Amino acid sequence: MIHGEIHLHVRQYINGRWETSATTGVSANPSDTSEVVAEYARADRRQAEAAIRAATEAFPHWSHSTPQRRADVLDRIGAELLARKDELGLLLAREEGKTLPEAVAEVARAGQIFKFFAGEAIRGGAGGGGGENVASVRAGVQVDVTREPVGVVGLITPWNSPFVIPAWKIAPALAHGNSVVFKPAELVPACGWVLAEIISRAALPAGAFNLVMGSGREVGQALVDSALVDALSFTGSVANGERILQIAAARRAKVQLETGGKNALVVLADADLDRAVDCAVQGAYFSAGQRCTASSRLIVEAPVHDAFVAKLRQRLKALKIGHALERGIDIGPVADEERLAQNLAWVGIAREEGAEHVWGGEALERATRGHYMSPALFLAKPSHRIAREEVFGPLACVLRADDYDEALALCNDTPFGLCAGICTNSLKHAMHFRRHAVVGMTMVNLPTAGVDFHVPFGGRKGSGYGPREQGRHAAEFYTTVKTGYMLA
């Protein structure tokens, strides 16, 4: 069992064995930087390549396993995550800085994802993803369209959701018969390790699942470069995603990217303002704004602009910022010192460009030394950098729109296209927005940051590349289609 204050020592998991490495790293509690959460082995390129070879050797066996075996493995993983959600949520809160209720909810969602894909393993059939029998245009010919697993899949995940994002990659990969090499972010090694430890006891063949912790420059690059890795799923920065795509596509590997967003929440004059403010606070600031679905652009119709800003300011003033494990805390610390410095720099950029400061944006001191800051709000223009670039912290800006048409145009005026929300009591505007917002996901009278685990997740434009994640649509990435003809 894992309890608070325990200092973990975590290792690589390669070919069914736990391994140490030549070098180690440390993760600290962002709520109390004096507390070491984990000391972890840092894999080198040699270990990453060993994990890839192990996955390659395990693939023929795992890819031909029965749907029932794959379902049982995933169901076992999901059941343990759900049973241990409080304990593992505590670990997540200590290592990443989410408030404890948010952290527990994330672990539970990870468990639900594994359970869902246990069902998908059965529904998909032995071939890894369902199929169909199609009448041929030629007499006496039978046509079958089936799905088969892709092969060895490299999974590179970020630090901000260290259970749920790995879950929605690992679970479908295994459900559809692929073998996996998993590289979590170095900021959250203990979360990656404990998930791997649960998977290691789920009766997978050796090599079907591997954990390698280390730098993106060495371990991640090994996954990107290897001709043995058939598919790569990456969640992270735009720059890293573009580099991965260029390298992997050159060797014709399958690539799936989720690379953030600059999401809008549109508030129309007919909206319930209290609900709209609640959507803005949850979407822009909870989890310290460290979500790719965060609504960092609040586009408000002119008649209610001032009233909305006043109500939002009052809500921000009332939010409690503090240690992630304290009861009643609304927002915990940001993830580390580098992120805090970046966020404060963005506050400075906003001021320098002439954005009007409304509230927050200061570093805070608490009883324990941590990476705390007050949630920041600015009134901005569309040309300001804070209205165009992803900040990935507790900072949002309000943009004024004269009417719905201008609000929609501002919503779409971005190189990103992950998600967008609208608060309105007009069915006409809600339906028009859902159709014309150039994004992968829309929300009506709901926060932008909040999605279900059984439906597709992903974006357009600079926010994503390749098939969607989650739900039944995950089969599009983790399987390949084969068409078979037979003379009857």
Describe this entry's structure for a reader.
The protein contains 14 helices and 25 strands. It has 488 residues and is α/β, with parallel strands linked by helices. The chain has two domains: 8-259 and 463-487, Aldehyde Dehydrogenase, Chain A, domain 1, CATH 3.40.605.10; 264-444, Aldehyde Dehydrogenase, Chain A, domain 2 (3-Layer(aba) Sandwich). The strands form seven sheets. A seven-stranded mixed sheet has the order 15-18-19-14-13-21-22, sandwiched between helices. A six-stranded mixed sheet has the order 10-9-8-11-12-24, sandwiched between helices. A hairpin with a 2-residue loop joins strand 4 and strand 5 (32-42). Helix 3 packs across helix 4, helix 4 runs parallel beside helix 5 and helix 9 crosses helix 10 (302-318). The protein is globular. It starts with 7 loop residues before the first strand and ends with a strand. The model has no long low-confidence stretch (mean pLDDT 96).
